[in-house]
Design brief:
The protein is globular, with a radius of gyration of 22 Å. The chain contains 20 helices and four strands. By secondary structure, the chain is mostly helical. Helix content is about 65%, strand content about 5%. The protein has one domain.
């Protein structure tokens, strides 16, 4: 091994964690391809309020990529934790539709909400309280969170791929399996699963690339999907003229340079929005790091995350940096488990993701051709691997059983990691109270129950226009 490779191996503890440089590179590539959709989706979601403020899709694309670049490289170099980051789903919609379009804040004021929530997040992290909160979560609850995330991400993959859809007489139903786009998704799922059954390390990446090639051929042959009318794009397009792009940094620093102070009567709404973003980011990240840490074997015998404190700090700084770049809350991506599924275990993986996001700055058209049909195999494999953690849950305890059930199913069916954790904690606290075992509830869990209750009430009042309408 050359001195350079030896230095890389030593710094990232690659051999120590049972990985190789090649494995980390593959894991980074797969993780990037699994989360590259955010470069297309995030600008679309933020497009309305940003457009009203005079910002373009190109500026939003650059802001999204820059936030991911800074966050991924910081995470890799400082924490050496195998998780990639980018502007998160859900919180981007909250910024766009609730904070800006419903509450009436300008886009720059909305970015300030993100910035302040990140500052609060960082204070809680460096004070040690955030890590203490993670440590105080019961072991079976951590396992349920990991399994719930697996269920959640598999459902997201299947739904976005058109394989399942909203039902009429049921919550979910099988999608239009005869649609060409859905057939392409099924093709990806079958190819990926077959290779995975055969224990091929390249199952995920081959399934993704082969599906993309087949999809491009379908598109060039004039094959179309009926789901396009519903806003679901499954068949990759091909337009070489649009592959190369020039980064537009017009949103960088806009949170300060273009900011205009809001009216005094908007302060309660500003505080409410900041608290809501803070809670969502905190517990989405906590759930994601527990899931990723469990999949990567980075939870010690006492249930603590290895290098967890540094990973939490990077996540908090990423939110602040994302606001400065001009985008919504930047957070840890559960899609990191796609890279972990092929053996990635160190911070070299998110650095690879960050470098690929740098490349993507100049090739937005190309990376935008990877549709949900191409990534469904990766997400389902991740779901299968993560849901295996249920075997170690204490199912003989009825309170723990109810907590695990509520965490896993509400996380998947509500489409929210935070809501899943909240329902699990409510079930746990109520169960311990009625079984006269409230002494087994730690102060942290009591505090979390109160926080989630206040957050849930506040969120419902905002959504229903009872306050700040």
């Amino acid at each position: 091994m050359s001195d350079f490779k030896a230095s890389i191996d030593s710094y990232f503890r690659i051999t120590e964690r049972g990985s190789t440089i090649g494995t980390e590179l593959r894991g980074g590539l797969i993780t990037f391809l699994s989360m590259v959709y955010i470069l297309i989706v995030n600008p679309n979601i933020l497009g309305t309020p940003a457009g009203l403020a005079g910002y373009t899709t190109a500026e939003l694309f650059t802001a999204t990529a820059m936030a991911a670049i800074i966050a991924c490289i910081l995470m890799g170099l400082y924490s050496r934790f195998p998780v990639a980051l980018a502007p998160g789903m859900g919180v981007n919609a909250f910024l766009s539709y609730t904070i800006c379009l419903t509450m009436g804040f300008t886009f720059e004021q909305g970015l300030l909400v993100v910035f302040v929530s990140g500052i609060l997040f960082l204070i809680l992290t460096v004070s040690g309280w955030r890590e203490r909160i993670l440590d105080e979560i019961p072991g079976s609850m951590k396992l349920a969170i990991s399994a719930g995330i697996g269920f959640f991400i598999a459902l997201v993959g299947l739904f976005n791929a058109g394989i399942i859809t909203h039902g009429t007489g049921s919550a979910l139903a099988i999608g239009k399996l005869g649609d060409p786009g859905v057939l392409l998704s099924l093709f990806c799922l079958v190819v990926t699963l077959i290779l995975w059954f055969m224990k091929k390390w390249y199952a995920v990446i081959v399934g993704l690339i082969v599906t993309w090639v087949v999809g491009v051929i379908m598109g060039q042959s004039g094959v179309t999907s009926d789901l396009v009318s519903s806003g679901i794009f499954l068949i990759p397009g091909w337009s070489p003229d649009n592959f190369v792009s020039t980064p537009d940094f017009g949103l960088f620093g806009a949170v300060f340079s273009n900011f205009e102070m809001f009216a005094a009567d908007m302060w309660p709404a500003f505080i409410a929005a900041t608290v809501s973003l803070f809670v969502v980011d905190m517990f989405d990240t906590a759930g994601t790091l527990i899931g990723v840490g469990g999949a990567a074997g980075m939870i010690d015998e006492e249930g603590h995350l290895k290098d967890g404190s540094k990973a939490l700090t990077c996540d908090a700084v990423a939110t602040i940096a994302g606001a400065v770049c001009g985008t919504s809350t930047t957070t840890s991506f559960i899609e990191s488990t796609t890279g972990i599924s092929v053996g990635a275990r160190t911070g070299l993986m998110p650095i690879v993701v960050g470098v690929l996001f740098i490349v993507a700055l100049f090739f937005s058209g190309f990376f935008g051709t990877f549709t949900s049909a191409c990534t469904v195999g990766a997400l389902v494999i991740v779901g299968i691997m993560m849901i295996k953690s249920v075997k170690d849950i204490e199912w003989n305890d009825p309170v723990v059983c109810a907590m695990a059930f509520m965490t896993i199913f509400m996380m998947g069916l509500s489409g929210s990691i935070t809501d899943g954790i909240a329902f699990g904690i409510f079930a746990f606290v109520i169960g311990k109270i009625v079984t006269k075992k409230s002494n087994e509830i730690s102060l942290i869990v009591w505090a979390l129950a109160v926080i989630f209750f206040v957050y849930s009430v506040l969120n419902e009042m905002i959504k229903n226009g009872i306050i700040f309408s």
